[in-house]
Amino acid sequence: MTLAFHNTGGSAVRSGTVTFGTHVIGALGIDWATVESEEKLPVPIGAGARRTKTWTVCVDAWRVPIGMHVETRDVTVEWE
User: Fold this and answer.
1) In angstroms, rounded to a whole number, what is the distance separating the alpha carbons of residues 80 and 57?
2) How far apart are CA 64 and CA 70, in angstroms?
3) Signed CA dihedral, 78, 4, 9, 48: sign only
4) Are 51 and 14 in contact (CB under 8 A)?
């Protein structure tokens, strides 16, 4: 998962987290479960600056039975 962050504020972002919501999807398109994972933001991000970061989002194999797949659909960022 690659995300681009743009700090439009007047001061640097020095900490924070990004949370990924990865969904386990059945063969008929039914959303069976959501697995959340949390990572630290690529800080510092200066005022007006942009940063791009790539993460590998994993789900344990036992959570994804044969015929199902995963999709990371939700991303939440908490700036601190």
Assistant:
1) 23
2) 7
3) positive
4) no
DSSP designation for 44: -
**pLDDT by residue (tens digit) across 12-51?**
999 999 999 999 999 999 999 999 999 999 999 999 999 9
Rounded distance between C-alpha atoms, residue 63 and residue 33, angstroms: 9
Count how many domains the chain has.
1
Beta carbons within 10 angstroms of residue 22's beta carbon: 21
pTM to 2 decimal places: 0.86
Residue showing tokens 């959340």: 36
Tens-place pLDDT, residues 58-78:
999 999 999 999 999 999 999
